[in-house]
Amino acid sequence: MARRLVILLLAFAGMVAAIEGLHTALAWWRGELAEPGVLDVLLIGALPVFLWLWWRHLSPFGRGRGQCLAASCENDAKKN
Predict the structure, then answer these.
(1) Residues 6+ apart with CB under 8 A from 26
(2) Mind listing the pLDDT tens digit for each residue in 7-62?
(3) Helices (H) and strands (E) in the chain, counts
(4) DSSP 62
């Protein structure tokens, strides 16, 4: 029970950090961020990590998903 709570809290913190990183990157891109601080640079630099985590664990194409791309599914699709 406690492990699930910790995972949920870490996932929430990661989502908040990813959203803040996107917000900071957009502000920097638009020129609204005159001098990025250390936290701003860390948030922008962590965006590839957040993207990888999303792609690997949350997207429909992540690990353990996309079983219909297997050869057996292709054969089943050809039969129908």
Answers:
(1) none
(2) 889 889 989 999 999 999 999 999 998 888 999 999 999 999 998 888 887 777 77
(3) 4, 0
(4) S
- Tracing tokens 């908040």 back to the chain, one arrives at 16
Q: Domain count of the chain?
A: 1
Reading the block at residue 68, the tokens are 């219909």
Q: What is the pTM of this model?
A: 0.68
48 lies in which domain range? 2-79
Of 45, 63, 47, the residue nearest 14 (C-alpha): 47
Residue-wise over 11-48: b if at least 16 C-beta within 10 A, else e? Answer: eeeeeebbeebeebbeebeeeeeeeeeeebeebbebee
Overall size of the chain counted in residues: 80
